[in-house]
Automatic annotation (TrEMBL):
Keywords: Hydrolase, Purine metabolism. Residues 24-181, 200-335 form the Allantoicase domain. This is Probable allantoicase. Its EC number is 3.5.3.4. One of its GO terms (molecular function) is allantoicase activity. The lineage of its organism: Bacteria, Bacillati, Actinomycetota, Actinomycetes, Mycobacteriales. InterPro entries: Allantoicase, Allantoicase_dom, Galactose-bd-like_sf. GO terms for biological process: allantoin catabolic process; purine nucleobase metabolic process. The keyword Aminoacyl-tRNA synthetase does not apply. Belongs to the allantoicase family. Pathway: Nitrogen metabolism; (S)-allantoin degradation; (S)-ureidoglycolate from allantoate (aminidohydrolase route): step 1/1. It catalyses: allantoate + H2O = (S)-ureidoglycolate + urea.
């Protein structure tokens, strides 16, 4: 049974969990021959210039695939979006703005719950049984906003990824996924970002800052492009690059975020985070872990339930990228020790 499109339904009051502004990312597409998949979650409304053509043909502000001829490749096209904020999905908007002679005949949307940082190819290869249908195959129109209420049975589930099926091919300008954010309670608590520049954190060492300043990783807010993060040169020698941050004060680290947003082809191969105590001892906070491009990686270092006797207090952290590559932001959430608070108060 197909969902029925409606005009301006109530669910649009919910935030767009897929938005690039909330760190959403289009991690995979079966094809993007004419227009890149990343356009699907751009925050602005799609535009159109009738005179703009590129080497591949007409330029569209959306995701457009090649003609899928059944005697050649058959099937249909899909794109997978990792939600910037996981949540319960209340409604979906699929906009085919400006696609008038090259829109798909049908569209469908499915949801997935996967908190692991799996490569995009592994997500795409998951069996159909892993996905929950949010919008069954439904007839589509050209140059039209399609509004779909999510079935009640699925609306209470928490999803991390969305798969948009374009049947069989064509172009879609935007995808909006409105819903209730559902945070992981393990990452909630009375903590501060010990590394943030606004709280007194500062970069004290960096192996390479060829393209942009390492100070960007502890700056306010989220990045809007790759240039607002830290990017090093391509390493042609042994070893790896790193950046060291003196924390606002001594603290116990609870969880960290290593964000590679907008670093699609320049992200590190692996990342790790080391804590440094007041005596110079090094403590492993995040073991060397495979990094994904264009992703907010969150790592639980210690559970707040451990209390004050939990993690070893540190005064600095070193983020290592292997062998090179850029990161957008580094967040080090934790609790100040008595000594750390005294340091901050004395500075104030």
């Amino acid at each position: 049974m197909s969902a029925t499109p409606t005009e301006q339904p109530g669910f649009i009051i919910w935030p767009d969990l897929a938005s690039r502004a909330l760190a959403g990312s289009v991690i995979w597409a079966s094809d993007e021959a004419f227009a890149e998949r990343e356009n699907l979650i751009a925050a602005h409304e799609p535009g159109f210039d009738p005179d703009e053509f590129g080497n591949k043909g007409k330029v569209y502000d959306g995701w457009e695939t090649r003609r899928r001829r059944h005697d050649e490749i058959g099937g249909y096209d899909s794109a997978i979006v990792r939600l910037g904020v996981p949540g319960q999905i209340k409604g979906i908007v699929v906009d085919t703005a400006w696609f008038k002679g090259n829109y798909p005949t049908q569209i469908a949307v499915h949801g997935l719950t996967c908190d692991e940082y799996l490569p995009a190819e592994k997500i795409a290869a998951l069996p159909e049984s892993a996905w929950t249908t949010l919008v069954p195959a439904s007839d589509a129109k050209g140059d039209h906003k399609h509004y779909f209420e999510v079935f009640p049975a699925a609306a209470e589930q928490r999803f991390t990824h969305i798969r948009l099926d374009m049947i069989p091919d064509g172009g879609i300008a935007r995808l909006r996924v409105h819903g209730q954010p559902v945070p992981d309670p393990r990452f909630l608590g009375c903590t501060i970002d010990l590394a943030a520049v606004e709280n007194g954190g500062r970069v004290t060492d960096c192996t390479n800052m060829f393209y942009s300043s390492p100070n960007n990783v502890i700056s306010l807010g989220r990045t809007r492009n790759m240039g607002e993060g830290w990017e090093n040169a391509r390493r042609r020698t042994e070893g790896n690059d790193s950046v060291t941050v003196q924390l606002a004060g001594e603290g116990r680290v609870r969880w960290v975020e290593i964000d590679t947003s907008y670093f699609v082809f320049n992200s590190p191969g692996d990342v790790s985070l080391t804590g440094i105590t007041d005596s110079g001892e090094e403590i492993e906070l995040v073991t060397k872990t495979r990094a994904l491009p264009d992703t907010r990686h969150r790592f639980l270092v210690s559970d707040p339930a451990e209390g004050e006797t939990g993690p070893t207090p540190v005064v600095a952290v070193r983020a290592d990228v292997y062998p090179d590559g850029g990161i957008a932001r580094l967040r080090v959430w934790g609790d100040l020790t008595e000594e750390g608070r005294a340091t901050v108060e004395a500075r104030w």
